[in-house]
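User: Here's a structure from my thesis project, written as structure tokens. My advisor, Dr. K., wants to see whether a designed sequence matches the one we expressed. Can you design one independently, without my sequence as a hint?
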């Protein structure tokens, strides 16, 4: 009798994990963070873009390993904290959660699909903003208002930017194992 691995429901999927040169793991997040910090000072209407978040989501879904996603998110978030006026750790904690959950979701779904990438980017922007608000309110005692309609619009705009950004980042892959 023929044995078909695709019919076994509890078997982990064998997926290829794209590899990037180490310089890409360093340069791309740094470029995204510098964009986040400096470009809105000159072009104010681009301040809604959260490129470090999009890079975190991309690398996490491509690695498909929750621990690696959490480490990537933590590193990007802490670097972003160090260059922003926010207290150290705010972006680090939130992006750690985003990296972990994005990588966890990528184990179940085909993350090469542009529609799914759009949905994930939209969702994780909302997730990021909500948990940042929770932490600022709960840990720092700041009285911030969570503006849901504006956040939804910004989530949509970030998701629109994410799709072509992810396609560009796809071209930087080197080896698949």
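Assistant: Designed independently from the structure alone:
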């Amino acid at each position: 009798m023929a044995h078909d691995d695709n019919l076994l429901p509890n078997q982990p999927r064998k997926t290829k994990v794209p590899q990037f040169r180490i310089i890409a793991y360093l340069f791309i997040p740094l470029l995204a963070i510098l964009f986040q910090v400096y470009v809105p000072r000159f072009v104010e209407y681009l301040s809604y873009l959260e490129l470090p978040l999009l890079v975190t989501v991309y690398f996490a879904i491509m690695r498909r390993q929750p621990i690696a996603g959490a480490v990537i998110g933590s590193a990007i978030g802490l670097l972003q904290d160090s260059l922003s006026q926010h207290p150290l750790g705010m972006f680090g904690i939130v992006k750690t959660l985003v990296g972990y959950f994005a990588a966890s979701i990528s184990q179940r779904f085909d993350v090469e699909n542009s529609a799914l990438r759009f949905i994930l980017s939209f969702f994780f922007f909302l997730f990021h903003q909500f948990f940042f608000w929770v932490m600022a309110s709960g840990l720092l005692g700041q009285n911030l208002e969570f503006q849901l309609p504006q956040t939804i619009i910004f989530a949509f705009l970030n998701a629109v930017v994410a799709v072509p950004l992810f396609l560009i980042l796809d071209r930087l892959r080197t080896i698949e194992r």
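When you compare it with your expressed construct, this may help: Confidence is low (pLDDT under 50) at residues 1-13.
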